[in-house]
Automatic annotation (TrEMBL), chains A, B:
Residues 48-77 form the 4Fe-4S ferredoxin-type domain. PANTHER family: CHLORIDE CHANNEL PROTEIN 2. Keywords: CBS domain, Chloride, Chloride channel, Ion channel, Ion transport, Membrane, Repeat, Transmembrane, Transmembrane helix, Transport. It is found in: Membrane. This is Chloride voltage-gated channel 2. GO terms for molecular function: voltage-gated chloride channel activity. The keyword Disulfide bond does not apply. Its main location: membrane. Residues 811-839 have a biased composition (Basic and acidic residues). Pfam families: Voltage_CLC (PF00654). CDD domains: CBS_pair_voltage-gated_CLC_euk_bac (cd04591), ClC_1_like (cd03683). The keyword Repeat applies. It is a multi-pass membrane protein.
């Protein structure tokens, strides 16, 4: 029973990632420690040497060395890292805003300069964004396709513990920054906030690498994850100058479980970043002092009446439906584009055609002298938001009020058309435009467009209320007219909260506007919007995660009683690939050919099934290649050759043939060695299916080659029949185990807490099954297999709560599994395989 | 190797509590499920029956039954629970505020009515609070001593997974509510926020019990913890009408790891609660509409100048030191009172003397015609806060300004004394008064007093700035005078943040004042204050946790590199109490006598040491008592009696003696059975040491009794030598295991994530040690054992970072442990025992 293993304990709990990385991290850590201690030793040795040298200069040098030591140790501090990150991101954000403003000004200038000819004006209005978007799409495509989209879904996956390596490189950083600047400079309804989360994370990853050149402690995996979590907060914080909202939003959007100790990091970095971002604006003479980005000035003494609350609630509920519709529309467009194979093939060939066409359509519709005049088309996103949050009332009794529409507000006023019609048109057009624009393959977010639409909807309700109650609702005493700007604030928070499934948009709204007087209406609307939207659709980010097929774990809703009734034994896969302690290399080979899990269970014997530990696939492959690999082959051939020589020393005419045979074999071995190296590709985290088949091919090649030389084959057969020697193999002696009656709720909690990827199910130490993210996901999403195509949203609590149908489903699931159990299926692998195909 | 166990899998991961409870929960869950399904069956049966009955009435009744079914299912929903909780807490908060206001008014009325005679006035001023505080202390002491203090430390411990059962009972609720009302009504510098967290949790626990009468799903342990987390948010939310700040504050104060899905619950309940709380004020005609509790009206266009930021930073740093000093002072007073044995003995006899004396001292000093006139003594806490946040400037060029001090502001103006002197006196006096008052054994918090002191300090700095720059700092163009009220806001947030070690006080401040314009100064000051305070002292709540010796796990600081270098093998206890599969009852008995862990490891054999599972102490005790218990004894005696009768049927004169002997033995057994029942006390979670000795005594009694009858002893000896039969014993087949090289950082994360209490350390399946919270705590707090009495604060990153001393400490610790390892100590238990004594 005693098993000699290489003690590699650090990787036991794959807290934030898989075992493979942990090992790497451990090795790196050790190396860093050695390096560091070496450094220290050399420093102290220098000191010792200097102590003997009693000149004046020596003291100075001691001092210098001490300072150097002090600085190096300081560099390792988190807060220096966070300050640098905040500073860097503030600069990036400010410079980007500056460039975007210049781009937008350029468009306005061109459009304004050509006012003699409408056609030329149109051409200028349309060409400019088309060129910018096409450039952005092309640039991103060429440099780093990973930079496309908002990046929040990817960050969520990375913080979940999955490694998407290409997503945190310098190339991606450059592509994202430049692509985003161009995309936003085009004036399309796109946002900056999602990409900024990604950019901040990129910044953190790069900065971390850079600082590890000095310190040596920036190598720890879990520390990096903590830094990434802080970076997400910085991203939102410096984008909106909203430190608190940024921290909360990033937590809500990226985490399932949150360590409160990271909270403080996030606050620190985000505050510093927001501070620098706004100070830059003051230094640039844009602002007189540090204020909010979209400062409002509603009255403080009586922000709203109690009787206006139903209107706010209506905004919340309507925006909940609107948010769900937006997510649905966005997904529909993507799926439509994918399904239409003819279009798809054409577009894939001309990759830049789709962005150009979409941009052309949208910019044509917003052309101010054309249809744009009915939807305030000439305003940029920022300008429309500023006007929507204005604290004056635009309409009274349905007629546009006769105050002077200063500045941009005049865009909303049309001589023939009522301001209500303009608002409705704005909302409807911008709604589908935003949903469409966010599918363009450029770096872009959807938060800001949604925010503006929500503000417009709020404004619409507010203006209607103001028209309905021109003297306000308050009955006794003073007249407090209704403030439609307050409604706009509520609407903006509600719609963006509904789309992203977050409550912290409320805080972002307060920080953006610099006023918190509408706190209760905003909170009520956001919560109602969330309740409605969560019951209808997943959040935008989860929707993208599903579209992109990133590995994820759905959330458990509230009030799902059945989660406590389903047990792990109901959902686990009973057909586990395992290896026994006394297995032969042939068994190993067979297991590697059939299985697809990244780690394999090691059991005592097939009879006892006592789980001893788990071994990584790579380790086993290494074992196999060690047994059948080149050195041993060469040794064998050399041995045989010596034997042959001894035997055939008389028959000398055969020797040349033999040597040529040997040479040809060596060549083949080299080729094989090469293909063996290529097999490392097999362990990349993604496109597992593709690589699966690739790997199979590789191994088939190997087996095919086996047949070429019968003697070699014979040798190989002999080698394969030998018992495996696990002596130098890294075994995880305590893989994650659950017992068979653990509830689904608890399993989910453990998986998301520890960032697990799979867990073995044991009964009194005996392995009886395995649960991976996939099974868990299926079980949580309910009855995908039972009821066919119906995909249940993760938080569909409002839809099916109260009825006992869900519980019936659960029992049906039970029955199904029980049937599975009783049925003498040879291997239950079929469903999962078909699932793999469908993915 | 096959081991038949009672499958009790749910308890495998003691997620939020100990294994014992989980089992209870599992049983309850099962019962609830059965009950529920029974209910449903009966309902459906009724429906079936009714379907046959074809009258009109039947339809109605079907409808009624359906409605009933629907309602019952709805009651199970979380959101109904949260709404009820919010409503209840808002009512409690409002009613309490109302009573407190009446109490304070009564004092003012008495004081005002007696203005003819200063002595009578003094008597009235002093007697009133003394009576109230004494009543509060006495009432709490008699009804539920658990209600004393803020309750946040206890809630933190409960949410950590430890069960403090008496803390969530109806008695405690009543004691806390009434005690708190009286304490706050006395006008002492006490707060309402901490106790409100406790009250909300009490409310949630009671409501949960109440609703389980209908639903049946309110029994799940982890669900209850989730609800308690939401309740904490409600507590803060409805105390300050600050939903967002409430949620964040409760997270920061009570959690280490936070599930984002609870976040939403907290927001929902806290918002609803805050809404109702403020609506009640509107209905009571206190307010015209829903506004902030301490509404400010600073100018919006230019809240502060960039050049004022250093002053804000100074406030932050100074308040950081102040916060640390407050915590230190508070602890010092408590420890002083405990150490002075003479005083202590006297005070323990007259328990109400201490509160009365403290109240007398404080109220004497604040007597308005006396010393109180120099420190605005006649203002209540609320009034002083309102005046401090006033947006007018009190002083110009050092001379009190000549505007009319309306309302309460005049209290700050003294004909002879400068306003600065008044402010300084106020700060100094209130500082020690608050630190002293919070040690009174009544339900009280420290947040509000600290908040007021912070505001006063901010005001002081603000007034100084206003006197220094009478025309404001801004150089070009418009004159923007300095707003000292803004400084007060910053100071309040910074000091309360420093004392509680939270950042979310910033959010609370915005919600309390209804203005967010000072967001960046507030954030900067809060973060600086936190940085300073965390490096000097633990938070007030952690300090109380240590004083009260509640089980806790300190936080890991940031930038502690050594945490990655210490491994579990360095800190684990190598001398593990275990039982083997083939052990005798005697071994069991011995193990139970010596060990103190709540669960014991079950290994295959002493040679192999392969960990098979863990068994609770209670289970083992049950096994032992089953083997030596009354039924088997009686059976044995009866058997022997039959034998005796057979043998001694001739010698009939002996029979009477024999029967009397039997009777006396039966009596003794009953006594023993009784004492056995009393032994259940041994399993209470606290005062383990005391009960340890108690248990020893019990068992010694048992052993003493053994000697009384030699035959019984012989029988018992025989019984003890038998091999243990684990057939009906509940064995946890997968207790939490770590491998020996897991880093301290990772261990800490796992312990706090999963709420563990201990974990076994294994090496290739073989048990080599055990780590419990205690070892972990010692290792994190650094060198308590190595360096003697020095207790290091948990986040002392600023103090010792940069120097390599901490790393030296780590290596010293390493060495120490290595020495321990190499030294042939018979049992390494001595350090932990001595530690137990010192506690």
């Amino acid at each position: 029973n005693v098993l000699s293993v290489f003690a590699c304990g650090t990787g036991l709990w794959n807290m934030y990632g898989r075992y493979t990385q942990e090992l790497g991290v451990y090795a790196k850590e050790e190396a860093a420690r050695l390096r560091e201690s070496g450094q220290r030793r050399s420093v102290s040795r220098t000191l010792d040497l200097l102590e003997y040298d009693k000149g004046r200069c020596a003291k100075c040098r001691i001092c210098t060395v001490r300072c150097q030591k002090f600085l190096i140790s300081r560099v390792g501090e988190d807060w220096i890292f966070l300050i640098l990150l905040g500073l860097l991101m503030a600069l990036v954000s400010w410079v980007m805003d500056f460039c975007i403003a210049i781009c937008l000004q350029a468009q306005k200038w061109m459009y304004g300069g050509l006012d003699s000819n409408v056609f030329l004006q149109y051409l200028a209005w349309v060409t400019y964004p088309v060129v910018l978007i096409t450039f952005s799409a092309g640039f991103t495509q060429i440099l780093a396709p990973q930079a496309v989209g908002s990046g929040i879904p990817e960050m969520k996956t990375i913080l979940r513990g999955v490694v998407l390596k290409e997503y945190l490189t310098f190339k991606t950083f450059v592509a994202k920054v430049i692509g985003l600047t161009c995309a936003l400079g085009s004036g399309m309804p796109l946002g900056k906030e999602g990409p900024f989360v990604h950019i901040a994370s990129l910044c953190a990853a790069l900065l971390s690498k850079f600082m590890s050149l000095f310190g040596g402690i920036y190598e720890n995996e879990s520390r990096n994850i903590e830094m990434l979590a802080a970076a997400c907060a910085v991203g939102v914080g410096c984008c909106f100058a909203a430190p608190i909202g940024g921290v909360l939003f990033s937590i809500e959007v990226t985490s399932t479980f949150f360590a409160v100790r990271n909270y403080w990091r996030g606050f620190f970095a985000a505050t510093f970043s927001a501070f620098i971002f706004r100070v830059l604006a003051v230094w640039n003479r844009d602002e007189e002092t540090i204020t909010a980005l979209f400062k409002t000035s509603f009255r403080l003494d009586f922000p709203f009446d109690l009787q206006e609350l139903p209107a706010f609630a209506v905004i919340g509920i309507a925006n909940g439906f609107g948010g769900a519709l937006f997510v649905y529309l966005n997904r529909l467009i993507v799926q439509f584009m994918r399904k239409q194979k003819a279009i798809n093939r054409f577009l894939m060939k001309k990759r830049l055609l789709y962005p150009a066409l979409v941009t052309l359509l949208i910019s044509t519709l917003t052309f101010p002298p054309g249809f744009g005049q009915f939807m305030a088309g000439k305003l940029t996103q920022k300008e429309s938001l500023v006007t929507l949050l204005d604290n004056r009332t635009w309409a009274k009794q349905g007629i546009a009020e006769e105050f002077d529409y200063i500045g941009h507000s005049e865009a909303w006023k049309h001589p023939q058309v009522n301001v209500f019609v303009t608002l409705v048109l704005f909302i409807v057009m911008k709604f589908w435009m935003s949903a469409l624009a966010t599918t363009i393959p450029v770096p872009c977010g959807a938060f800001m467009p949604v925010f503006v639409i929500g503000a417009a909807f709020g404004r619409l309700v507010g203006e209607s209320m103001a028209a309905w109650f021109p003297d306000g609702i308050h009955t006794d005493g003073t007249i407090y007219p209704i403030v439609p700007g307050g409604y706009a604030v509520v609407g903006a928070a509600a719609l963006s909260g509904a789309v992203t499934h977050t409550v912290s948009t409320a805080v972002i709204v307060f920080e953006l506007t610099g006023q918190i007087s509408h706190i209760l209406p905003v909170m009520i609307a956001v919560i109602l919007a969330n309740a409605v939207a969560q019951s209808l659709q997943p959040s935008l980010y989860d929707s993208i995660i599903r579209i992109k097929k990133l590995p994820y774990l759905p959330e458990l809703g509230w009030g799902h009683h059945e989660k406590y009734n389903i047990r792990v034994e109901d959902i686990m896969v009973r057909d586990v690939r395992y290896i026994t302690l006394n297995c032969s290399y042939r068994d190993l080979h067979n297991v590697l050919l059939t299985g697809h899990l990244k780690t394999l269970a090691l059991v005592e014997s097939t009879e006892s099934m006592i789980l001893l530990g788990s071994i990584e696939r790579a380790q086993l492959q290494a074992l196999l290649s060690l047994q059948l690999g080149r050195p041993r082959r060469l040794a064998y051939i050399r041995e045989r050759a010596v034997e042959d020589k001894k035997r055939l020393s008389v028959v000398s005419n055969d020797s040349s043939e033999n040597s040529s045979h040997r040479a040809s074999q060596e060549v083949r071995f080299q080729v094989r060695g090469h293909s063996g190296q290529r097999c490392k590709k097999c362990f990349q985290p993604f496109k597992a299916h593709y690589f699966q088949s690739h790997r199979k091919k590789c191994l088939q090649n190997v087996t095919a080659e086996f047949c070429m030389s019968s003697k070699i084959t014979e040798w190989e057969e002999k080698q394969l029949d030998e018992q495996v020697n696990f002596n130098n193999c890294k075994i995880d002696p305590a893989p994650f185990q659950l017992v068979e009656r653990t509830s689904l709720h608890k399993t989910h909690t453990i998986f998301s807490l520890l960032g697990l990827d799979h867990a073995f199910v044991t009964s009194i130490g005996r392995l009886i099954g395995v649960v991976s993210l996939k099974e868990l996901r299926k079980a949580i999403e309910g009855s995908v297999t039972v009821k066919g195509a119906k995909v249940r949203p993760p938080l569909a609590s409002f839809r099916d709560s109260g009825t006992s149908s869900s519980e019936n489903e659960a029992t049906e699931l039970h029955k199904l599994w029980d049937r599975h159990k009783s049925m003498p299926l040879p291997r239950e692998h079929t469903p999962s395989e078909s699932d793999e195909k469908s993915q």
